[in-house]
Amino acid sequence: MAEDHEKLGSVSGEATEALENVHELVVNAAQDIGSFIRTQRESAEVSLRQLAKLAGVSNPYLSQIERGLRNPSAEVLAQIAKGLRVSAEVLYVRAGLLEQRPHGPIRDAVLADPFLTERQKQVLLEIYDSFRSENETRATPPAADTTQPPTAVPVTDQPLSDSQAGTAEPRNNSTRNEENEND
């Protein structure tokens, strides 16, 4: 019985430690997204008041987000991204709502296009990713047989015999020369 109580104490201690780690990760993520938003806002030379108005949130709420005291929802992040003229995907990744996608020239071009809305960018990238994954599953070529060397065909100046050429008649060199002279 004492052993069971001891095991239970170590399990609850591990659970408490895990919860503390999760809490620390959430606080760090909130501070990270907040400082990232502040940095983006300052580099865009937009005041806190202007961004709050563009994002449709109050000044105090945006200030709390920037200081890491509040964790914004996906909708608020999308509005902030729109106000900062950055991709919402970038903010979602920084906030831990999305996993980082691999970069590539097509993805970068879509994300950088100022004429596309955030929704259009998201849909284009989803379609692109689905095409790529579909083609990757189909495009697994069969392995080449490397045990047999490729068959070589001898090249000679002599015309092929009937047995080598099948049913085709070999051309006469004199006929070939006469055709070239007529051209």
Description:
This protein is mainly alpha-helical and 183 residues long. Among the domains are: 24-100, Orthogonal Bundle (434 Repressor (Amino-terminal Domain)); 101-138. Helix content is 66%, strand content 0%. The protein has nine helices and no strands. The chain has helices at 2-43, 48-55, 59-66, 74-84, 88-95, 105-112, 118-138, 162-165, 173-182. Helix 2 (48-55) crosses helix 3, helix 2 (48-55) packs across helix 4 and helix 4 (74-84) crosses helix 5.
CATH architecture of the domain at 24-100: Orthogonal Bundle
Name the helix and strand elements from N-terminus to C-terminus, one letter apiece.
HHHHHHHHH
- Report the principal-axis shape: flat
- The radius of gyration is 34 Å
Given helix and strand content, the structural type is mainly alpha
Largest sheet: none
Low-confidence parts lasting 5 or more residues at pLDDT below 50? 165-170
Distance between the termini: 107 Å
CATH superfamily of the domain at 24-100: lambda repressor-like DNA-binding domains
Briefly say what this structure is.
By secondary structure, the chain is mainly α. It has helices spanning 2-43, 48-55, 59-66, 74-84, 88-95, 105-112, 118-138, 162-165, 173-182. The protein is built from nine helices and no strands.
